[in-house]
C-alpha cells in the first residue's frame, strides 16, 4: 500500500513538473518568437482603451448629430486643385507626396495673396472635384471678388475644401477666422488623441482607437467649437500653458481635425490643425479626400502584400538562420495567417551556398529544406552573381541550370514563375540575356525591382512588362543584410518602431494596393527583426485601420497589379547613364554614347528626307544605320520597335570617334504627331534637340494622299481626295483611317504643344518647309547654329539646283549631282479649288493657334502661314 502511495505521489510530482515545464516553454517560445533575444524588443501594445474623458462631458454640443453627406457632384473631373505656399514649403510637399502616393491627379498652384484664380471650368465642366489649401488663411483673407467666385464654383459644382491652419509665431494665438464660428488656438503642446466614433468622415481609419503620450512639437493648432455647424473628428488634450488665455483653463479637450458640415454656407470643409507630420492626420487626410469627393478619389480597403526573403543559404557565418529561427519562422507564418489571408513567406535561394555556415546554421538549412512545402520559393542566381556581369546568354543559362538542379534534388518547387536577380541587376536597366535565360530555364513570368524608374522617391516606383515578363515594383522595409540586431538598428530601435507605428513602412502599405517587401535571410536569425517587424506591422494595421490584408502567389499578384494599373504595362526607357545606381547594374560593355544628340521628327511629306540628305553631308553629323524594314527611319519611339528595348535602338548607331564633335541623329517623320513619342524621347534623351518642318497643312494632306495612291493603297485608289477629306462619322473604317492620316498631322499647334510639355523651347527648331525647298543653304546655316555643330559647313558650295528634279541636290565632283530617289518629287495633278477651299476652312483655327504659338516662342511666321491668316480677316 505504501509502495502504491509512493508511486502515486511520484506520478503527481512528475505531472506537475511536466506541466510547469510546458508552461515555461510556451512563455519562452513566445518571448523569443516575437522579440528575438532582447526583452526590450517588444513594441509597445497599441491600446484600444479610450483614454480621453467621457465624450458626454466634453464642452462640444455636438459629437454626432447631423453627420452631413458629400454634395452631389455636378459635372466635375476627378482632379484636385492644391494651393501651396511655395514650391519649397514643407507642408505643401507633404500634401503633394500623399496625393502622388495615392495616385490622385492634381494641379498645384502657388496661393496668391492677390490676383486671379486659375481657370476652374472648361466647356461647362468643373475642372476640380476638391480644393486643398496648405494655408487656409489665404482663403479666408482672399479679396471679395475671387472668394465669391471660388465659393460660387464650390456651390454650383458640389466641390468641398480641405484647409490647414497653423500658427506663425512662437506665442499662443487665439482667434476666430473671419466668416467661421469656431475658435483657433495655435502653438499649443498636446498629448493623447482619440477619434470621434460618430464621424462619417472615416474610410481607412478605424474609429475606435486612442493614441497615448505626448505628441511631437509645441506648435499644434487646436479647434474649439460650440455649435452644430462643425463636427470634431480627432480630439486631443492640451498641455496647459503658463499665462495662457483664461478660457483655456476651463477646457481640457480640443479637436485637431474638424469637419464643417456646410450648414452655414453650403460648402463642406475639413480643417486640420498644424500639418501632416502626425501620422494620424495623414491617414485622416486620405479619408477626407475620399469622403469629400464622394469616393471618386479613394483607395480600396484591400492590401496585397508579399514578403520576399532573399539570400536563402547565402550569408557569412554568424548571420544565418539556425533551427530555432526556422521554427520561429514557421510559427510566425501561422500567426500572420490570422491577420493576413493566405500569408506565406516567399524564399529566394542560391543553392551554391547550402551548408556553408556553422554547424548550427547548417542544421537551419536542413530544417528549411525539411519544411520546403510550407513556403513559396523562387530562384536567385546559383552563385548569387549579378546577371549583368554575364555578357552572353549561355553563361546565364549554365548558372540557372545549376540552381535548378539543386532545387530538383531537394524538392524545391520550380514552377512558381517568379525570380529575383541579385541586387536587381539586369531587370532595369534591361539586360536582354537575363530575360531570355529566365524564360528558357525557369519559365519566369514575374520578377520585381526597386529600380524602375528610380530607387527614390519610392512613391514613383512602377511596374512594366518586357519580353512577356511582368516586372513589379519592390519596396524596402528598412531591413537590409546588415540590420540584424534590434539595439543596433540605424538611428536606434525607436527609428524602426516609428516606421512601423505610422511611419514609412506603415504608409508604404497603406498607400500602395500591392506591396512586395524585400527582406533578407539575416533578418530572420539573431534578433529576428523580420518577424518582429511584420508581426507588429500587422497588429498596428489591424488596430488603427479597416484594411483587409491578403497575400497572393507572385503570378496572381502580378495579374492583379496590371488589372489595377493597365497604363503601366508599357515601359518608359530612360538613359541608364543618368542614374549612378543604374550604371552600376548595367553591362560595362554598353555605352550611352550611342544615343542621338538630335532628332528630326517630321511630319511626313514636308521635306524630311531632303533635310536628312543635307544633314549627312556635314562631316560631323552621323545618322543611324538603315532599318531593314523602315530604311533610314528608326520608328523606335512610336511603335512596336520601342518594346525591343534600348539595346536594340543603340545597336543602329556607331560609337562616336569624338564625343564632343560627332553628332548622332535619327529621322522618323511619324514622331511629330505621335501621342507616345514626346514622353519617350524625353525619358531616354532629355537633352536632345528636336527639329520639325512645317508646310501648308493642306498641301501636306494632299501630298500624303498622292503618296498612298503611288503605293497602290486600295482606299486611296477607290476614293477621290475630296471624298477622303470630307468623309463623315459613319464612313467605313478604312476611309476614316486614311482621312485621319491625311488631316491629323496638320494640327501643328496641338502636336508642337505636346512636345513642349517635355522639352523647353530652346531645344526645338522649326523649319519653314517652303524655304527649305527654295533656299536650303540658308536653312542649313540656321540648323548648324541651332545644333552647335562644328566645323562650319558651307552648303552654298555643296548644293546645286536640279532643273529636271525641281529641287536642290548634293553637288559632286565634275559637276554631277546626287539627288533623292524616284519616289521623291513626284509630279501629280494640282489640288482642285473645292478641296483647297475645304481644307483652308478646316485648318483655319489650327493655323490661328499656330501663329499664336510661334509668336510666344519668338519664331517668325512662315510665308504660307501669313498667306492663310490673311483669309481669316
UniProtKB/TrEMBL annotation:
Keywords: Disulfide bond, Glycoprotein, Golgi apparatus, Hydrolase, Membrane, Multifunctional enzyme, Signal-anchor, Transferase, Transmembrane, Transmembrane helix. This is Bifunctional heparan sulfate N-deacetylase/N-sulfotransferase 1. It comes from the Eukaryota. Pfam families: HSNSD-CE (PF12062), HSNSD_N (PF25119), Sulfotransfer_1 (PF00685). Residues 303-506 form the Heparan sulphate-N-deacetylase deacetylase domain. Residues 76-292 form the Heparan sulfate-N-deacetylase N-terminal domain. It is an enzyme of class 2 (transferase). Belongs to the sulfotransferase 1 family. NDST subfamily. GO terms for molecular function: deacetylase activity; heparan sulfate N-sulfotransferase activity; hydrolase activity. Its EC number is 2.8.2.8. Disulfide bonds join 809-819. It is a single-pass type II membrane protein. The chain crosses the membrane at residues 15-34. 3'-phosphoadenylyl sulfate binds at residues 703, 808, 824-828. It comes from Xenopus laevis. The active site is at residue 605. GO terms for cellular component: Golgi apparatus. The keyword Transmembrane applies. It is found in: Golgi apparatus, trans-Golgi network membrane. Pathway: Glycan metabolism; heparan sulfate biosynthesis; Glycan metabolism; heparin biosynthesis. It catalyses: alpha-D-glucosaminyl-[heparan sulfate](n) + 3'-phosphoadenylyl sulfate = N-sulfo-alpha-D-glucosaminyl-[heparan sulfate](n) + adenosine 3',5'-bisphosphate + 2 H(+). Its main location: Golgi. The keyword Transmembrane applies. Residues 596-845 form the Sulfotransferase domain.
Amino acid at each position: 500500500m505504501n509502495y502504491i502511495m509512493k508511486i502515486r505521489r511520484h506520478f503527481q510530482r512528475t505531472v506537475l513538473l511536466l506541466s510547469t515545464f510546458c508552461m515555461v516553454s510556451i512563455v519562452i517560445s513566445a518571448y523569443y518568437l516575437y522579440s528575438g533575444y532582447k526583452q526590450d524588443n517588444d513594441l509597445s501594445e497599441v491600446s484600444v482603451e479610450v483614454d480621453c474623458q467621457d465624450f458626454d462631458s466634453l464642452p462640444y454640443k455636438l459629437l454626432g448629430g447631423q453627420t452631413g453627406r458629400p454634395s452631389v457632384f455636378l459635372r466635375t473631373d476627378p482632379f484636385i486643385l492644391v494651393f501651396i505656399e511655395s514650391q519649397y514649403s514643407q507642408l505643401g510637399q507633404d500634401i503633394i507626396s500623399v496625393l502622388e502616393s495615392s495616385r490622385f491627379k492634381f494641379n498645384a498652384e502657388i496661393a496668391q495673396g492677390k490676383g486671379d484664380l486659375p481657370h476652374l471650368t472648361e466647356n461647362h465642366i468643373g475642372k476640380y472635384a476638391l480644393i486643398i489649401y496648405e494655408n487656409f488663411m489665404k482663403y479666408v483673407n482672399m479679396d471679395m471678388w475671387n472668394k465669391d467666385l471660388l465659393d460660387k464654383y464650390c456651390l454650383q459644382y458640389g466641390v468641398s475644401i480641405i484647409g490647414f491652419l497653423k500658427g506663425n509665431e512662437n506665442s499662443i494665438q487665439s482667434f476666430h477666422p473671419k466668416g467661421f464660428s469656431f475658435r483657433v488656438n495655435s502653438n499649443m503642446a498636446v498629448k493623447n488623441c482619440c477619434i470621434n466614433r460618430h464621424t462619417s468622415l472615416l474610410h481607412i481609419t478605424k474609429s475606435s482607437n486612442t493614441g497615448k503620450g505626448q505628441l511631437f512639437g509645441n506648435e499644434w493648432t487646436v479647434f474649439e467649437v460650440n455649435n452644430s455647424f462643425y463636427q470634431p473628428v480627432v480630439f486631443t488634450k492640451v498641455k496647459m500653458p503658463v499665462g495662457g488665455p483664461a478660457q483655456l483653463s476651463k477646457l481640457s479637450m480640443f479637436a485637431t481635425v474638424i469637419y464643417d458640415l456646410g450648414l452655414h454656407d453650403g460648402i463642406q470643409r475639413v480643417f486640420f490643425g498644424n500639418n501632416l507630420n502626425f501620422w494620424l492626420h495623414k491617414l485622416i487626410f486620405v479619408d477626407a479626400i475620399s469622403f469629400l469627393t464622394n469616393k471618386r478619389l479613394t483607395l480600396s480597403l484591400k492590401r496585397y502584400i508579399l514578403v520576399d526573403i532573399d539570400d536563402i543559404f547565402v550569408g557569412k557565418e554568424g548571420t544565418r538562420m539556425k533551427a530555432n529561427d526556422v521554427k520561429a519562422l514557421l510559427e510566425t507564418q501561422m500567426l500572420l495567417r490570422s491577420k493576413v489571408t493566405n500569408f506565406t513567406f516567399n524564399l529566394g535561394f542560391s543553392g551554391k551556398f547550402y551548408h556553408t555556415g556553422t554547424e548550427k546554421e547548417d542544421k537551419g538549412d536542413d530544417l528549411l529544406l525539411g519544411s520546403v512545402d510550407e513556403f513559396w520559393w523562387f530562384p536567385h542566381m546559383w552563385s548569387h552573381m549579378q546577371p549583368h556581369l554575364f555578357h552572353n546568354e549561355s553563361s546565364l543559362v549554365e548558372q540557372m541550370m545549376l540552381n535548378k538542379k539543386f532545387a530538383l534534388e531537394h524538392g524545391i518547387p520550380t514552377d512558381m514563375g517568379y525570380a529575383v536577380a541579385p541586387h536587381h541587376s539586369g531587370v532595369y536597366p534591361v539586360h536582354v540575356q537575363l530575360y531570355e535565360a529566365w524564360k528558357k530555364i525557369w519559365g519566369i513570368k514575374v520578377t520585381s525591382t526597386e529600380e524602375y524608374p528610380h530607387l527614390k522617391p519610392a512613391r514613383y516606383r512602377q511596374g512594366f512588362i518586357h519580353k512577356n515578363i511582368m516586372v513589379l515594383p519592390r519596396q524596402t522595409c528598412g531591413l537590409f543584410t546588415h540590420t540584424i540586431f534590434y539595439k543596433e538598428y540605424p538611428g536606434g530601435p525607436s527609428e524602426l518602431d516609428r516606421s512601423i507605428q505610422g511611419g514609412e513602412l506603415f504608409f508604404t502599405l497603406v498607400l500602395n494596393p500591392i506591396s512586395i517587401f524585400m527582406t533578407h535571410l539575416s533578418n530572420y536569425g539573431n534578433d529576428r527583426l523580420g518577424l518582429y517587424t511584420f508581426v507588429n506591422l500587422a497588429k498596428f494595421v489591424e488596430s488603427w485601420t479597416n484594411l483587409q490584408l491578403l497575400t497572393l502567389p507572385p503570378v496572381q499578384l502580378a495579374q492583379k497589379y496590371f488589372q489595377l494599373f493597365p497604363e503601366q504595362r508599357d515601359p518608359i526607357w530612360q538613359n541608364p547613364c543618368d542614374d549612378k545606381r543604374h550604371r552600376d547594374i548595367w553591362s560595362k560593355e554598353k555605352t550611352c554614347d550611342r544615343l542621338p544628340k538630335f532628332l528630326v521628327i517630321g511630319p511626313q511629306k514636308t521635306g524630311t528626307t531632303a533635310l536628312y540628305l543635307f544633314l549627312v553631308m556635314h562631316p560631323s553629323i552621323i545618322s543611324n544605320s538603315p532599318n531593314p524594314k523602315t530604311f533610314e527611319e528608326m520608328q523606335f519611339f512610336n511603335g512596336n520597335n520601342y518594346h525591343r528595348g534600348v539595346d536594340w535602338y543603340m545597336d543602329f548607331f556607331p560609337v562616336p570617334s569624338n564625343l564632343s564633335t560627332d553628332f548622332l541623329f535619327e529621322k522618323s517623320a511619324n514622331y511629330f504627331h505621335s501621342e507616345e513619342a514626346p514622353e519617350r524621347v524625353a525619358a531616354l534623351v532629355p537633352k536632345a534637340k528636336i527639329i520639325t518642318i512645317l508646310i501648308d497643312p493642306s498641301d501636306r494632306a494632299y501630298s500624303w494622299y498622292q503618296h498612298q495612291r503611288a503605293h497602290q493603297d486600295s482606299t486611296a485608289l477607290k476614293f477621290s481626295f475630296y471624298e477622303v477629306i470630307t468623309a463623315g462619322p459613319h464612313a467605313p473604317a478604312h476611309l476614316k483611317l486614311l482621312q485621319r492620316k491625311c488631316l491629323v498631322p496638320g494640327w501643328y499647334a496641338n502636336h508642337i504643344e505636346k512636345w513642349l510639355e517635355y522639352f523647353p523651347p530652346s531645344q526645338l527648331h522649326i523649319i519653314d518647309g517652303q524655304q527649305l525647298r527654295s533656299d536650303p543653304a540658308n536653312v542649313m546655316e540656321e540648323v548648324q547654329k541651332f545644333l552647335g555643330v562644328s566645323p562650319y559647313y558651307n552648303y552654298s558650295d555643296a548644293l546645286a539646283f536640279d532643273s529636271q528634279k525641281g529641287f536642290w541636290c548634293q553637288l559632286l565632283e565634275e559637276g554631277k549631282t546626287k539627288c533623292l530617289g524616284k519616289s521623291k518629287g513626284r509630279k501629280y495633278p494640282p489640288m482642285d479649288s473645292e478641296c483647297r477651299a475645304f481644307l483652308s476652312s478646316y485648318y483655319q483655327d489650327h493655323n490661328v493657334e499656330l501663329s499664336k504659338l510661334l509668336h510666344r516662342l519668338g519664331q517668325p511666321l512662315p510665308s504660307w502661314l501669313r498667306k492663310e491668316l490673311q483669309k481669316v480677316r
